[in-house]
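Quick one:
INPUT:
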C-alpha cells in the first residue's frame, strides 16, 4: 500500500491535533490546581504577617520591619530558615510514623480547599456533598498529629497527640451538627447552593441571623479544631514543651507550622461561606453574576469582585481569631472537654431540632 504526500500530511496533522488535545487537557486540570495552591500560599503568608503585626500592636512593641517593606517578607525568611535547618529523627522512634504524620496533616487540610467557592463559578469542584466532604477530610488531620506524637518516642509528644485526638473528637460533633442545620436551611449540602440561598435576601439573608446559636457554636468549635488559644492544649509550651512538635525540626516542623495556618484559613473561609453570604453582595436581590453578565470582560470583573468580597469577610474573621489569642487564657483539659461534651453538644443538638421543626412547619 502506497501513501502519498497529502495523506502523510493529513496523518501528521491529526497526530498533532491529538497531541495538542492531550496537552490542553493536562493544562485544563493542572491550571486551576496550581492557581489555587498559589493563592493559598499567598493567603498563608498574609496571615503570618497579620498575626505578627497585630500581636506587636497589642503588646505595644515593634513587629518585623527589616525583612522587606513593613516586614512583609518575614514569613518567607522564616520558611527559608526552616528549609536550611537539619532534619533530625529520633533514634528510638518510629521513623515511618514520624515522617508520615506532618504530610497527612497538611494534605488533609489542602484537599478541603477544593470545595470552597471563592466567587461565582470560581470553585475547583462543586460537589453536592461539599460541606460534609470538608468535615470528613479535615477529621484526618488529628490522625497525623497522633502519628507524629506516637512516632516521636517522647512522653510530651505522645501526650500532645492524645490531646489533639481528644480535642478533635470533642468539637467535631458540634461542628457537624451546625453544618447539618445550615444544610437543612439551604436544602443542599453544596457550598455554592448555600451561598446562593443566602444571596436572595442580601445582608439579612445571611445564616448569621437565621442561625445565631449555630454561628457561636461553629465559631468556638472551629477555634478548637484549629488549636488556637484558648484551645491550644496539644502544644501548650508550659506543660508539654511543644507538644507533638517537640522532636521535629527543619522542613517537617515547617509543615506543622503551615498546617496550623492552613487550617485557620479554611475555617475562616467556611465561616464566610456558611454564615456570611460568601461572595454575594449585602443588597437584596443583587447577585454578582447578574450584575456583571454583559460580556466576558464584565464576567471576569464580577469574579474578581466576588473573590475580593469573600477574602474581605474571611480576613475579618481572621482578625478576631488573632485578637482572641491575646485576650483569653488557656483552658484546662477538663474544662475543654466539659465545654465540648456537656455544653456545645447538647446546645447544637437543640439548635438542629429547632431548625428541623422550623423547616417542617414552613412546608
Amino acid at each position: 500500500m502506497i501513501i502519498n504526500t497529502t495523506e502523510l500530511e493529513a496523518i501528521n496533522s491529526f497526530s498533532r491535533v491529538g497531541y495538542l488535545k492531550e496537552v490542553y487537557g493536562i493544562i485544563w486540570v493542572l491550571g486551576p490546581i496550581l492557581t489555587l495552591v498559589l493563592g493559598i500560599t499567598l493567603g498563608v503568608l498574609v496571615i503570618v504577617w497579620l498575626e505578627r503585626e497585630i500581636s506587636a500592636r497589642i503588646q505595644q512593641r515593634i513587629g518585623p520591619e527589616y525583612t522587606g517593606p513593613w516586614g512583609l517578607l518575614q514569613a518567607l525568611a522564616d520558611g527559608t530558615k526552616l528549609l536550611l535547618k537539619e532534619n533530625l529523627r529520633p533514634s528510638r522512634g518510629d521513623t515511618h510514623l514520624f515522617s508520615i504524620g506532618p504530610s497527612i496533616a497538611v494534605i488533609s487540610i489542602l484537599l478541603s480547599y477544593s470545595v470552597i467557592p471563592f466567587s461565582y463559578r470560581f470553585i475547583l469542584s462543586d460537589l453536592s456533598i461539599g460541606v460534609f466532604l470538608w468535615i470528613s477530610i479535615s477529621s484526618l488531620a488529628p490522625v497525623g498529629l497522633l502519628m507524629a506524637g506516637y512516632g516521636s518516642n517522647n512522653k510530651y509528644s505522645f501526650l500532645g497527640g492524645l490531646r489533639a485526638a481528644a480535642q478533635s473528637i470533642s468539637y467535631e460533633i458540634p461542628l457537624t451538627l451546625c453544618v447539618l442545620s445550615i444544610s437543612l436551611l439551604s436544602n443542599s449540602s453544596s457550598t455554592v447552593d448555600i451561598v446562593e440561598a443566602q444571596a436572595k435576601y442580601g445582608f439579612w439573608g445571611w445564616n448569621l441571623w437565621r442561625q445565631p446559636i449555630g454561628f457561636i457554636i461553629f465559631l468556638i468549635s472551629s477555634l478548637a479544631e484549629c488549636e488556637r488559644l484558648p484551645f491550644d492544649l496539644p502544644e501548650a509550651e508550659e506543660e508539654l514543651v511543644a507538644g507533638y512538635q517537640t522532636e521535629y525540626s527543619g522542613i517537617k516542623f515547617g509543615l506543622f507550622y503551615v498546617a496550623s495556618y492552613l487550617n485557620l484559613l479554611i475555617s475562616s473561609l467556611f465561616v464566610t461561606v456558611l454564615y456570611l453570604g460568601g461572595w454575594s453582595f449585602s443588597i437584596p436581590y443583587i447577585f454578582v453574576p447578574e450584575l456583571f453578565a454583559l460580556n466576558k470582560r464584565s464576567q471576569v470583573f464580577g469574579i474578581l469582585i466576588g473573590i475580593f468580597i469573600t477574602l474581605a469577610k474571611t480576613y475579618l474573621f481572621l482578625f478576631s481569631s488573632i485578637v482572641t489569642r491575646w485576650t483569653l487564657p488557656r483552658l484546662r483539659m477538663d474544662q475543654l472537654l466539659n465545654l465540648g461534651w456537656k455544653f456545645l453538644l447538647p446546645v447544637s443538638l437543640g439548635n438542629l431540632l429547632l431548625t428541623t421543626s422550623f423547616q417542617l412547619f414552613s412546608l
